[in-house]
Amino acid sequence: MTEIIPLLNLRQIRKSFGPNEVLKGVDFRLAPGEVVGFLGANGAGKSTLMRILAGILRPDSGEMTLQDKSHSPKGPVQGRDAGISIVHQELSLVDSLSIVDNLFLGREIHRLGQIRQTEQLRQARQILARLGSPLDPDRKVARLRTGEKQIIEIARALLHQTRVLILDEPTAALSPGEAENLFRIVGELSNQGIGVVYISHRLEEIDRLADRVVVLRDGRMVYDEPRGVHNRAAIIAAMAGRDVGEHVQVAGSANPATPHLFETINLGRKPLVNKVNLVLRPGELVALTGLVGSGRTELLRLLAGIDQPDEGRIVYRGKPFHPDGPAHSLRRGIGFLPEDRKDQGLFLAHSARTNLSISVLEELAGGKGLLRHVRNRDESKLFDDKSDLLGLQPKNPALAAGRFSGGNQQKILLGRILASRPGLLLLDEPTRGVDASARRDIYRILAEAAGRGAAILFATSEFAEALALGQRIVVMREGTIAADFPNTPGLSPGDIMRHAVSEQS
Amino acid sequence: MRGIILALSGQRVLLALLGICAVFSLLTIQRTAPEGTAAGEQVARVFLSEKRPPMARVLVVSTNSAEDGQFSVRVAELLGEQGILIDFAQSPIQAREAAEGKSGPPISAVLATGSASSWPVLERFNLPVLAPAPSLWPVFLQRSNLLNIASQISVIAIIAAGMTLVIMTGGIDLSVGSIAALAAVVCTRLVRDHFGGINAGAPGMIVSGFAAICVGGVVGWGSGAIITWCSVPPFLATMGVMLVASGLAFQVSEGQSVYQVPDAFTWLGRESVGGVPVVVILTLVLYALASHLIQSTVLGRYILATGSNPVAAYLAGVPVKRVQRIVYATSGALAALGGVILASQLKSGAPTYGQMYELYVIAAVVVGGTSLSGGQGSVWGTLVGALLIAVIQNGMNLLGMESYTQKIVLGLVLLAAVLADRLRRS
Prior knowledge:
- The structure holds 2 protein chains of 2 kinds.
- Chain A is an alpha/beta fold.
- Chain A contains 18 helices and 22 strands.
- In chain A, a hairpin with a 2-residue loop joins strand 4 and strand 5.
- In chain A, helix 14 packs across helix 15.
- In chain B, helix 11 packs across helix 12 and helix 15 crosses helix 16.
- Chain B is α/β, with parallel strands linked by helices.
- Chains A and B meet through helix 10 and helix 11 of A and helix 12 and helix 13 of B.
């Protein structure tokens, strides 16, 4: 198949965000009718490459050709017009409109400004029939299930004369029956000559659908084998790589005899967290890892009391714990660091000092009571204490949080949590978007906090980081804990990857 | 005090206010004569320095206005010390009788106030008439005009203090005008029906006023409850409450003005203490409290944090919803206080009070530099913003501009303030 003139040909695509080179010269070809299984660990550059293809981003250098014509879309609309469609995990349908209106949104069939409803309906029925879907085009999209919405997305792509269809984790939210229907559709599209890029972490789906498997790691194509040649062990090894990050600290482990600080029993919240059993002991530094969509963030939010579980229970300090919002959790000594520091953590226009003290204001003011006086002196003292501990740069309490570098913003947030002296820290991606020196500081801060007896559970999408910092490693897959093992020297990212990808259906 | 000066000096709005005051001062310069005590002092000193025969006797003529009364008192004080005999006249007839009276030493001069000096009868006496000398002075800067501005703006300013807190949380409160009307009729009806109407005593009026403020607080708290418990956008929730409160005001007052209140009812709105109107003192005290609240209390930090990033505030343990209910209740209570002051100033309560006030109040907050997106702003800035609006209105009135033109100018000022806010953020 690969001998035919390629439908899509990418040569030496490079893309950097600031100093961070995400794509380091990627070559990729796709033949008409070919289904390529596209894999890569978190941060390998998959989504950047797909966004370049679709015209959402532009490459720094490199060539793209689509059916022997140069392909350099200047925006998503041009990308779509050229025949490239992405079906994202987050669907982009308008819930309040009907199926047919969604299908033709932005490219209505009209004459003299009048939408030709009957013609649109006819085409919509035709396309849905082609996909084997019994849906009525007049139905509102809001009433559809996720699998049905996905079909509508694919139908929309087909209406746009798509030649390359990119499916991003399409089965993540589908029931087995819906997934089966999707596989059938992918097969049919392939027969019609459409090239399909199938992004998934589910190896059994890749095995079943893909004519060829490619793996992207650290911005390079590291694996490219046709059907029959590829095997799971090689794919996992290619995704994980061999480089083990430096061990920041000697990964000791808490004494198993230490009483549990925190324990969950069959904890769950639909649809992303399912029957989680997890134990944390004082002084323990535990890595929570897994692939994108495995439910790490959702689990942390449950543990932090932000979301309510709909099954299972939590035992904390030997007593049942009923989460009741972050303020309640904080009072009980549970601190949470959100994943997105700008949207969920910082008050960007406010000073570093007030960002640091917000969680302990009442304590600073000497007791409960909203009208208590917060003295600048007390706040400044807190800032001085914490900024020394954190190695904050610049050490300027009056500077707006938004003016600090990413690493120092993260330190401010860590300082905020540590100020309340929590017994349990739940940290979601504590080093995301942070430079190397800040990352070292953060590792040190966490190790010190654990040394003082705090239990720390940190989510990370980087397996190397889990190995570098965690005393124990908990791997999530599809909302549940797939593995939970002590970190021993000699473990490699591949050992985590094995648990992170799904191998059985 | 130093904090206040610092907060004000950082305000570009303050500079704008001073600039506009300067412009209006220049534009309204007129030949005007001093009045009252100052006039009496001037005329008496002129008489003493220039035309003082031995055993002098003077005739002081004035109208019976309060200002002219002060004139006469001051003249009597100064000349009485010198042993000068003084006759008083408060009408042309009295003046002629005094001038034609034959007993005692002859009258050597007539001392007249500005308004009395134009009486034709004085010319017939063949006596020198001393009147206050007119000088060039801006009408805008006359003490009476400045106090007028201060009293007029105090209601808007008091309501705007609460609105500032609401807007700092990223919200908006459209119900303040209606709450002011509701409070005005609740207060006056309580006085009329439960505390003896025009014979009501001070305790009754005070209880009525506080009851009305409590009603406003409860209505505002209701807005906050709807916003936080039902996740309704503040704009819509307070718009609904605006209609409800307005309707309630008409029901409570049965659609009529309630005016059966004692004369003392106007103390809050019209009286002065030490030469400064009570409402002005009240406004300044409230602004000092609100500024302290925002700058130095836990609640103030929570308000700004909520407005800056509600998600982050919630995750950091800030009781975001409680903070919101508190600010809407405060806004409602202050709006009600504004309504009580209006009732006191107008000596009656009517359900039509406070119409469109929400717009002026929001304009004052925005012009004062508080960002509509929340999280940033200045309480004192709002006071300056309210003053700016009042000064522009007052100045345009003095210059005789049409009300239509005034509306256009106010609208442009508001747009300029919003634009400045945008520019500052980008």
